[in-house]
Write a structure and sequence with these properties.
Helices cover about 25% and strands about 15% of the residues. The protein has about 150 residues and is an alpha+beta fold. The strands form two sheets. The chain has a four-stranded antiparallel β-sheet, with no helix packed on it. A two-stranded antiparallel sheet has the order 2-3.
């Protein structure tokens, strides 16, 4: 019984000491008042520097590209069942997320079909960051190994 009371008392003392330390640090000292400096003269040829990067350094926005693509090497499970192409392929998909928020799947054999059970939110949850931008679909497929 005495041991617990002593531990409680030590805990309360430590709390009080911590609160006193915090109270000391919340009082900020007044800084010196800076002397008023003369205002600089306005330049005669005021050039406005834009805050944005030049166009060649900007990454394309979602409206600038036709869509995004990623590899999906594992079997694709949608609503509890493994999705398979009509040719029998059930893995090694290329998943496309188009500008109109539709999701398309492409198998190794080149068959493409829209998958209405998947959406852009699913794509964003499962895709990584964009690492390349490709000018054509064939360049993108070649980059992904298809």
């Amino acid at each position: 019984m005495f041991r617990r009371n002593r531990a409680d008392r030590e805990f309360r003392d430590a709390q009080r000491a911590g609160q006193a330390l915090l109270a000391v640090h919340t009082e900020w000292p007044e800084g010196p008042v800076p002397a008023a400096a003369p205002a600089p003269a306005a330049p005669t040829d005021a050039t406005v520097v834009p805050d944005f990067l030049p166009p060649e350094f900007r990454a394309p926005s979602r409206q600038d590209v036709s869509g995004f693509m990623m590899r999906w090497d594992l079997p694709l499970v949608i609503d509890g069942e493994v999705h398979a192409c009509h040719c029998g392929a059930y893995r090694n998909w290329i998943v496309f997320n188009m500008r109109d928020d539709s999701v398309w799947l492409r198998c190794d054999a080149g068959h493409e079909a829209q998958e209405t059970r998947l959406d852009t939110a699913w794509y964003n949850r499962n895709s990584g960051p964009v690492d390349h931008f490709h000018p054509t679909l064939q360049d993108g497929l070649r980059h992904l190994g298809h």
